[in-house]
Amino acid sequence: MTLAWVALAATAFATAASASQSTEILRPTGGLSQRVCDSLYEPIALTQASDGRYLLLDRRAHTVYAVDRTGARLTKVLEAGMQKGEVLQPAALSLAPDNAYAISDAPFGQERIQVFNGAGSQIRAFLRPGLTTPRLTMGPLILNGVGSLQFTGTSFFINAPESGALISELDLSGDPVRQFGTLRATGHEGDRNVHLALNIGLALPGRDGSVTFVFQTGTPQFRKYDATGTLVFERHIEGSQLDPYLHLLPTVWPTRKIGDGTYPVVPPTVRTAALDVNGNLWVSLVAPYTYVYDTRGDRLRTVQFDGTGGAAPSSLSFSRATGRALVLPGCYEYDVK
Asked: Are 9 and 248 in contact (CB under 8 A)?
């Protein structure tokens, strides 16, 4: 039912947007070689360090790869396994400004975060307390918990609404530093699981210490918090492409039994989001449209990424070497200036 809803919403989006003349089509200007892309099973994250080296996370292969700056030579960095320095059921890869990177996975039924320096040596590893709770997924993607991991080099930002806050910041040992961001009103406060599912999203730290939170379920919107965790503004994500979606937005959801509990299956409305090198926010919807907002929350552009087979990005990041957008599927680079 979830996949059917996503397909229906995407069709409606495409139909409504076909008459729009304001959508920019971005075409690839580079990327990884076709041979490298074809060798992957289920890539869910692609980043590029300041030295030009790419990092790839392949979920189905339980593997992290490095790719040379030409995009042609693939090397295994982390392989499948439950021990430190190995990966099992990975959910996210996040690259810090100093080229250190964090990997989140779930061995032993627990969420784990491992940190490696730019040379590939492990410098941190810890398990988060408690067993892994049910996560919002879309295909191979885990969208909350450690699946929402963002690493700054000095701390981690995750979305764990069950804590009572939208954003949790953890130190390098995994201990909570602070929690901030009030859960939004959903109209489903009486059903805790639905209420939490409608407060799932991505916490994106900016260079100035601010954090932008993008809701990935329910009514599309985002909030910006300053370095102290104080709300600066909240914006609804609106546009002609969204009108059909608003009519299709579910009010009831099917449930799924997981372990001893039953949880609602709430489809995402936002696939991914990222801040570019200028601090602008890029929000990719379930339909193949990406809205771009400036640091004040005003919309700048509506874009489509050509070359992805008509799909919206499942992974979006910005190269520390070139400032270009890196997009999955397709392993493409785009000049976004």
From this structure: yes
